[in-house]
Amino acid sequence: MNALPWDGTWHAWRLDREVYKESWDSGLGAQASGGRWNPPGRRVIYASADPSTAILEVAG
């Protein structure tokens, strides 16, 4: 497998409810209740590498 060229920029996609628009990047929701990959007490921001995966995350 060959590595793809990287320009040094990360892009992440996330869909969220409008009520969370001011704090989407705080990680407070995951800190309060835990998430798929983190225990309560740890701030985590879940995001996707592309728009289609972000849509699937909230559609399920």
Q: What assembly state would you assign to the polypeptide chains in this entry?
A: single chain
What is Rg?
14 Å
| Major sheet size, sense and barrel closure | none
* Strand portion: under 5%
Low-pLDDT residue intervals, each spanning 5 or more residues: none
Contiguous helical run count: 2
Which geometry do the CA atoms define?
Answer: globular
H/E order of the elements? HH
Q: What fraction, in percent, of the residue positions are helical?
A: 25-40%
Taking the alpha carbons of the first and last residues, their distance comes to 32 Å
Given the helix and strand composition, which structural class is it? mainly alpha
Strands, count: 0
**Mean pLDDT, as a whole number?**
89
How would you concisely characterize the structure shown here?
This protein has 60 residues and is mostly helical.
